[in-house]
Please model this.
Amino acid sequence: MMDKYICSVGLVCLLTGCSLRQAGYTAAGAAAGGGIGYSIHHDAKSAVLGGLGGALAGNLAGQWQDKAANAKHDKNYQEGYTQAKVDMANKNWDQNTGKGMEPRKKLVSIMVPKREENGVIYDQKEITLEDYQ
Model:
């Protein structure tokens, strides 16, 4: 009788495509249902029927838990994917427009030639300027 019971629980799990969580809920439901069925009528038939009912209820609870976890995972994945697209668009925009980039400083040396202005003679000299790009 116990072999049929174990096979029945395994069959319920196999037919519904159980995950590990669903298998645990199915086993817990089957044990609880079998115990309740046996405590009511004190015969094996009631225990098996109670176990099958408990296994079905446990499996449904496991499916509900998996569906809720998958929905949460999918929502978080979609939020992260959307945020990554926004961040990449902002980065591309900033790079292509030059916005948000720090200017690069470069020192440039220039030779100023000798010249005369209003009677004053200025010697040739080299000056260094900062060039920002």
